[in-house]
Write a structure and sequence with these properties.
There is one protein chain. Helix content is 53%, strand content 12%. With 239 residues, the chain is α+β, with helices and mostly antiparallel strands. α2 crosses α4 and α6 crosses α8.
């Protein structure tokens, strides 16, 4: 009788273990899901913060290729939501990627921290030239000069040195002049995700004191020839 009871007890215990065994695992799993999601969000935050340039979704998916894409997207959405709270930093979409930057209204305070380094601002002439290139790219130096009425060679060199513009090819006309276009650095510098984020032509023209028609895009692509290999290797500012 005792043996039976003992067997029954063991069976009952084993049955109870069978019923209870998954419970701790389920509990651990449920408890572990949130930290896992939080960890993925923390990884994303670290990657975006550490990246020297805007981190694109393509790069994120490549780095986190072992994680389900929907989990990465959910973590990214959660990270964006976290940065909507008031704080000194913000998560922005710029140049087709993500960056963690200081809030724009706090830039003056940040400049005080780096007071040793002087910020070189673009001149009005450089801004005008950059605007013409941005709205009419690709465009040649002669066309820019025609629009602005002044020689722009010096300004173009400055913009090239600062990586705000680049040479993208040659125009298929006599002399085959270089054609210029804006760069990814231009998008980053002005906080644009892509060129569709540019202000309205009328607003930009009014801000710079230019006529709106001169900023209208033109120069069809078929007029442009690709750069030759020897030309590429000589220009340090071409990228």
């Amino acid at each position: 009788m005792n043996e039976k009871r003992g067997q029954h007890g063991r069976e009952g215990q084993e049955g109870q273990e069978r019923l209870e065994a998954p419970a701790p695992l389920k509990k651990d799993d449920e408890a572990g899901r949130k930290p896992a999601s939080a960890e993925l969000k923390a990884i994303l935050e670290a990657l975006i913060f550490a990246s020297p340039e805007p981190l694109t979704p393509k790069a994120i998916y490549k780095i986190l290729d072992e994680e389900p894409r929907e989990d990465v997207q959910a973590a990214l959405a959660g990270l964006k939501q976290d940065y909507e709270r008031p704080g000194g930093l913000q998560l922005v979409e710029v140049a087709g990627g993500y960056q963690i930057v200081t809030r724009q209204d706090l830039h003056e305070w940040v400049r005080r921290l780096f007071h040793e380094r002087t910020t070189q601002r673009l001149t009005v002439q450089a801004l005008e030239t950059l605007a013409v290139i941005a709205y009419r790219q690709p465009i040649t130096a002669a066309e820019i000069t025609e629009v602005r009425g002044v020689n722009t060679s010096g300004v173009l060199n400055t913009l090239l040195e600062r990586h705000l513009i680049k040479i993208v090819g040659r125009k298929q006309v006599v002399g085959r002049p270089f054609m210029y276009a804006t760069t990814k650095e231009f998008l980053i510098r002005f906080g644009l995700n892509d060129l569709t984020d540019l202000p309205r032509v009328e607003d930009m023209a009014e801000a710079l004191g230019l006529d709106a028609p001169i900023l209208i895009e033109q120069s069809p692509s078929e007029e442009m020839l690709p750069l030759e290999e020897p030309e590429d290797s000589s220009g340090g500012s071409i990228h």
